[in-house]
Amino acid sequence: MSPDDLDGIAARENASRKPIQIRCCTAAGCLAVGAESVRRELQGVLEQHPLRDQTEVIGVGCMRLCGFGPLVRRDPDGTTFAGVRPADAPAIIAGQGPELTPLDMHQPFFRNQKSVVLANCGIVDPERIESTIAAGGYRGLRDALTLHSPAEIVQFVTRSGLRGRGGAGYPTGVKWSIVAGSTDPNKHVICNADEGDPGAFKDRTILESDPHRVMEGMVIAGYATGARTGYVYVRGEHPLVTDRLQKAIDQAREFGLLGTDILGRGLIFDIEIRVGAGAYVCGEETALIASIEGGRGIPHPRPPYPGKVGLWGAPTLINNVETYANIGAIVENGPDWYSAIGTPTSRGTKVFSVAGRVVRTGLVEVPMGTPLREIVEVMCGGAPKGARIKAVQTGGPAGGFVPEPLLDTPVDYEAMAAIGSIVGSGGMIVLDETTDMVEMARFFMDFCRDESCGKCIPCRTGTVQMHGLLERIGRREGTRADVLRLELLADVVRHTSLCGLGRSAPNPVTSSLRHFRGDYEEKLRGGPKS
Asked: What is the DSSP letter of 102?
């Protein structure tokens, strides 16, 4: 396929569209509450309806308001319905019916979002590459291959200011430069899709909804760095991701967007899926590499870093799902366009999966620098039933608790670190005034204790001891000496563990002690003092 063929495919796809499209969300959240039955009923009703020649039913990805599914949108007017049942199909097809109340698409949840990564989520059919191409998919790849050298693409990524969306916020352009600068002919590109933070679902949803956007970023990365092979490491608990991603890979090969001579420009690059067994530690890049190689998924000391010695000893670029999903747009629109979004130190947008004690749960994409309060109180409606928000937990087990008085903190890597939390990979759990912060700290320590690979003593035994102290305090049997031991252990585990799991495991504990020490003191009153 030549670069010009993309325009032809898009033109044919757009010409074949019927005037009315009924889009039914088929992401995991909506499927869990009956979206497939709704889609089948919509299709069945349509086949017998007078509007069948003017209307089509399309299965699409996430429409963002995940707690209100199944979601269905009737285009071109954009009327969107929540909580749809199969019995609602006739009214939706007919475009009328008082039994259905459409969502207000001008409410802050939708109005305040800025879509880059999620631009085509809820619009394209994730199982048809033609749908993606018609919506602009692979134009960034076409521009990269026809207008820019590999070195220019690396400079684009560097100038954009994009930082890794996997949690650490490391400058993406630096990683790309290291791999691109290697003379080793064997190089690899890895997409880390091992999303395992409690409450996080944005990477899974991106791959379910728009897999070609991530794949496009990986192919551009292969072109820029000289790598020929790519791997997507997916958690085994996400079968829908694996299924849709494999279909997307097969279709991309068929259309000449993977394999040899991509777009007729001589580029060789292909992608394979590797399915993990659910070990949280495999989100750490050296453990992930060990797992792909067929070994036990445990971290290894760094240096050497994967950019120099990675998969099978070769230079390896590892980025997160959301990171790759930004690349095509950066190439197509230019690095200055992207760097104009966000803050001077945190450029672009950030996708968050918002869950917990909040009125509107789902996916939000906002410019970096957006205050937490705007996300959880304005966009997501705050705590339900008039309750007061007590804290927002960001960054998963590696993150911390942001108390309500600090919700005006902007979503910025440095600003979040200054208050004892992190932006993280994109999980955001809202906690209301009924939440026991000691119990929340114990929950996250329980998670880290179970997920420790056991290689290093500080993480293997320190998390067990910290969990025991938290249980003791939670039973109102703790003393102030126990709180002191907890703080000392946290310091030891943080500074002596081998990898990021152990080094960050104490964060929820230290964050809860920093901002909610009263919760601990209240429990100590019920037990012996020392």
From this structure: B
CB 319 within 8 A of CB 191: yes
Query: d(Cα 105, Cα 253) in Å, to the nearest integer?
Result: 37
**Distance separating alpha carbons of residues 505 and 53, to the nearest angstrom:** 57
Q: What are the structural domains, with CATH classification, of the chain? A: 18-104 (3.40.30.10), 137-339 (3.40.50.11540), 349-432 (3.10.20.600), 437-524 (1.20.1440.230)
d(CA 167, CA 117): 16
CA atoms in the 13 A half-sphere facing the CB of 80: 20
Edge-to-edge order in the sheet of strand 20-25: 55-60, 20-25, 72-75, 79-81
* Number of separate helices (H) and strands (E) present in the chain: 23, 14
Other C-beta atoms closer than 10 Å to the C-beta of 352 total 26
Query: Starting from the edge strand earliest in sequence, which strands make up the sheet with 188-193, in order?
Result: 259-262, 267-276, 229-235, 188-193, 316-320
Q: Do the Cβ atoms of 407 and 381 come closer than 8 Å?
A: no
CA 100, chain centre distance (Å)? 32
Say if CB 389 and CB 435 are below 8 A apart.
no
Q: What is the pLDDT of residues 461-476, one digit of tens each?
A: 999 999 999 999 999 9
Which residues face 232 on adjacent strands? 191, 273
Least Cα distance to 35 among 114, 108, 89 occurs for: 89
Model confidence pLDDT, tens digit, residues 73-102: 999 999 999 999 999 999 999 887 657 889
pTM over 0.85: yes
Q: Which helix (H) or strand (E) holds 393?
A: strand 389-394
Q: Phi and psi (nearest 5°) for 265?
A: -110, 10
